[in-house]
Amino acid sequence: MTERAAIALGSNLGDRLQNLRAARELLKKLSAPNGDLLQAPIYQTAPVACPEGSPDFYNTVLEISYAGTPHELLDATQAIEFHLGRLPGTERNAPRVVDLDILYLGEATETGGLLELPHPRLTSRRFVLQPLADIRPELILPGDGVTIAEHLSHLDTDEPPLALVQGAW
After folding, report:
1. Bridge partners (DSSP) listed for residue 58
2. Residue 58 Cα to chain centre, angstroms
3. Which fold has domain 3-166?
4. pLDDT tens-place values along the chain, 169 residues long
5. What does the domain layout of the chain look like in residue ranges?
6. pTM of the prediction?
């Protein structure tokens, strides 16, 4: 069965725009045949919970159609990260060529372990909520009663505003 899966993409090392484009192309290959790809604009964001002196990120969200399990998607996104140059065993939240986080996969819920769905910090981070709201403002996550747009409008964070980098990429 094919489900909609959203993946947050971030990059703060190297050619950030090209890194996101390369990740997008590899994520497209995971998408079910004839599945629509939804692609949010790219925003420049200040690093959150990263080591001192970390460069700004480029962040966006893609939504694909996916026919596998949540853990198969996790394996695939981690393989893409390493293929594009992410180093294993680096400091938590260290600068990286690409970071891919699964936000949701249909109505799947997972807690504990390596994967939590929906992503546990999705609704508390502007750099995820804003691009997701750009493509799925009326989405209500499994186990939630509020739309993504409503979460964004009521977000209480000290994150600085996001700067639009590129709408179409």
Report:
1. 11, 44
2. 11
3. Alpha-Beta Plaits (3.30.70)
4. 899 999 999 999 999 999 999 999 999 999 988 889 999 999 999 888 888 889 999 999 999 999 999 999 999 999 999 999 987 766 677 889 999 999 999 999 999 888 999 999 999 999 999 999 999 999 999 999 999 999 999 999 888 889 999 999 9
5. 3-166
6. 0.94
